[in-house]
Specification:
3-stranded antiparallel beta sheet, Immunoglobulin-like, single chain, 4-stranded antiparallel beta sheet, elongated, 81 residues
């Protein structure tokens, strides 16, 4: 399971830190408060501590959904500009 999914908001997006238990594809999707997909990315990552950056279009509240071969994790974050 992807563990410790933590969002560190920053201007224009967020940095997401997590532990990937097994090497393989990792998909990150970010949705705004209305449920609209605003960011999507898939990468092949090694097992271990990982960081992914995402961009968002404006200030607001967002939900990040991270899917790995082992599990799915979610976290909320807000951007204030």
């Amino acid at each position: 399971m992807a563990t410790g999914l933590v969002a560190a908001p920053r201007r224009g997006g967020a940095r997401l830190n997590f532990t990937n238990p097994v090497a393989g594809p990792v998909t990150l999707k970010v949705y705004d408060a209305t449920g609209r997909l605003v960011f999507g990315r898939t990468e092949q990552l090694k097992a271990g501590a990982q960081t992914l950056d995402c961009a968002v279009p404006a200030s607001g509240s967002y939900i990040a959904v991270l899917k790995t071969l082992a599990a799915t994790a979610t976290t909320k974050f807000s951007i204030l500009e």
